[in-house]
Amino acid sequence: MYINKIVCLKCHGLGNIPYYAGIRDGICFQCGGSGLITEKSNIKKDTPNPKECYNQYIQDKKQQVIKHNKIKELKDKIQELESDLKANTDIETTKQGLINIFKKMNKNYTQQELDAFIDAINVTIKLNNDKICKIKKELKELYKQLYELTNDK
Question: Mind spelling out the 3-state secondary structure of the chain?
Fold first, then answer.
């Protein structure tokens, strides 16, 4: 049986807890201010450096915050693109409605005027379809990034 020293999980190897500075100068009661606690084990372990462990802990926390912010940013962008996609897909259903409104106006339009109007609508829809494809492609890339971030260990 070996007695190993491991980093105190309560103070993360600091030996004190700044939040409790008003109580016995913030000394950690779990490790007695050493930053290490003893553990009985059948395996001999090297004694870690508490300062290195604490620095790694802080670095890991910073990375978690960065990752969380990136995930939130991606989700916001996805939501924005999805609502833009919904708005742009509705234009196809309004094509026939626009044509009907144009025909119902009191003025008698020539076939040439009607054809020009329909051509203008078709060009608008073509441009809109290109925009929809672009949005879908961007959404696919954002979902891929989000998947990679959320499944990264």
Answer: CEEEEEECCCCCCCCECHHHCCCHHHECCCCCCCCEEEEEECCCCCCCCHHHHHHHHHHHHHHHHHHHHHHHHHHHHHHHHHHHHHHHHHHHHHHHHHHHHHHHCCCCCCHHHHHHHHHHHHHHHHHHHHHHHHHHHHHHHHHHHHHHHHCCC
Domain edges within the chain: 2-48, 64-150
Please write the tens of the pLDDT for every residue from 61-97.
888 888 889 989 999 999 998 888 887 776 655 666 6
52 Cβ contact list (under 8 Å, min separation 6): none
Residue type, 66: I
Determine if the pTM surpasses 0.90. no
